[in-house]
Amino acid sequence: MLEKLFALRENNTSVKTEVIAGFTTFATIIYILSVNPAILSDAGVPKEGAFAATAIAAAVASIVMGLLAKLPFALMPGMGLNAFFAYTVVLGMGYTWQMALAAVFVEGLIFLVLSIFNIRELVIKSIPMDLKYAIGAGIGLFVAYIGFANAGIIVQGVPVTTIGYLQSPMAILALIGIAITALLYMYKVVGALFIGIVVTTIMGIPFGLTDLSGIGTVVSLPDVSGTFLHFDFSQLFTLDFMVVLAIFLFVDIFDTAGTFMAVARTANLVEPDGRIKNVKRGFISDAIGTLVGAIFGTSTVTTVVESGAGVSAGGRTGLTAVTVGVLFLAALMFYPLFSVVPIFATTPVLVVVGFLMFKQLLGVDFDCIETSVPAFITIAIIPLGYSIAEGISLGIILYTVLMTAKGRFREVYWLTYVIAALFIVKIGSHFV
Questions:
Q1: Vertex 417 angle, CA 411 and 420, to 5°
Q2: pTM attached to this predicted model
Q3: pLDDT tens for each residue of 229-253
């Protein structure tokens, strides 16, 4: 049955290889079960519901990817998108997490329509490559900033951010955790990020920073009633909602397209004409994951580049993704274990993931002023201004201005002008 469903012989693989590849990918992304609920809970999302939503969304999306697209790609709530959800939309703009979930749900619907009718390229073309790299790098800095703040390594002061009390046990353990996680990652240890969380959590026990008193049982299904179908559509037709919706959509599509290309090449899933095998179904699977995630109570779900770990282990078919999904369903039962992870224990993962995202900076062409200056503004504003939305907005506006002034306005995609105008109207609305 599995041979017929996934064409294992045709792809020169076996059930054993695919399952091992699935375990490998899962080990590299299991950290999301600790990190995502921690980030979303900062925005007021019930932590237990956020954990359940994370596991269920990752499971359903990965299984759909495996069965529908037959690709060895895993999915989970995206890092950076969860930070935008919590720290920009809710804490920064003052909206409820229920409104943010509504934006994620609508974004998922739009992504699904764009994928079904093959018009997602409209969004991909609307942002120049230098700005795409800048957005990734800026969000990486933002994610690392959050990690440092969670451990008290830096303190959000008035008027400026300052170094925290580095002699505190929490800061010291977080710094040790960063070093351990980086070493594990450097030596390509499978599951390095999750191991970093576990080790840092254990180190916190003798200092009283890791509370084990809440563990009454190891196995217990989490309660999802606090987040299931908790949508607030009251802001649906406001300008701010549209901007939030646009940024969710942009980052989701860019992440997915970039991951597809990077992992597909490694797995030899690129057709002779340059197209990725089953790419349409892959994007549809990604959109379904986002819809399921929003329904259960988590931020945007996206295809993750860590899927490359499973591909490197021999994964070539959808059986790898299905294996990942089944493992996420199994992990759903162990909420008590994940619930003891203290916030500072997520710092190593946030810093290392931030570093990996920041590497996209290498793609920026700094010799081209009209694209690199907007890229720099984007990178700087996102963490310093504590706003992914404003960083992207200012970057796109400045890009259109400089390209037009340079006489290269014909090279700017028409939708980019529309997006820039939308952002200008949003900024101007605050003066009315």
A1: 130
A2: 0.88
A3: 999 999 888 888 888 898 888 888 8
Between the alpha carbon of residue 373 and those of residues 101, 241, 336, 399, the distances in Å are 33, 28, 47, 8
102, 232 Cβ separation under 8 angstroms = yes
Residues, the chain:
432
Give the contacts of 229 (CB within 8 A, at least 6 positions apart).
295
d(CA 75, CA 410): 37
Inter-axis angle of helices 239-266 and 129-150, to 10 degrees? Answer: 100
Task: Give Cβ neighbours of residue 390 (< 8 Å, ≥ 6 apart).
Answer: 381, 382
Query: Angle formed by the axes of helices 414-429 and 388-405, to 10°?
Result: 120
Q: Which two tokens stand for residue 131?
A: 């700005």
Which pLDDT tens digit goes with each residue over 122-132?
Answer: 777 788 889 98
